Amino acid sequence: MEILISNRAEAPADLELIKKISLFVLSNEKAADGSEISFSLVEPAEMKRLNKQYRKKDEATDVLSFAYNEDSITDGMLGDIILCPAEIRLKAQKQQLRYREYFELLIVHGVLHLLGYGHESDSAAIVMSEREEQLLTDYERPK
User: Fold this and answer.
1) DSSP assignment letter at 57
2) Domain limits of the chain?
């Protein structure tokens, strides 16, 4: 399994944390050994542009996930996850969460989207949320 990271954000980010959590989720979700995920860390202006282009929302957001479908030739590439550290910091403050805690949640959230989880219905959102919580609990448990 491979995690590719492009950091175009000005704010510092823990790139090793992204790799560790992503690999943990992929392993626990029994992803294929050749699975790959691409992460990009971007500034709010780029995130706003992407969010408008792909979701028709003219605002920056904290995370976007783009799963590759099985019809494309991907050589194990599951998809792309775009993170905006500046937006993550703002939303963490609004939700009274530690930055790292919220950052970890969004990594798990993005990877689960690439693995087919979603929140298009209330029941799907509950399943995804419960899986996020379980994975984060298992990841943080002393080894």
Assistant:
1) -
2) 2-140
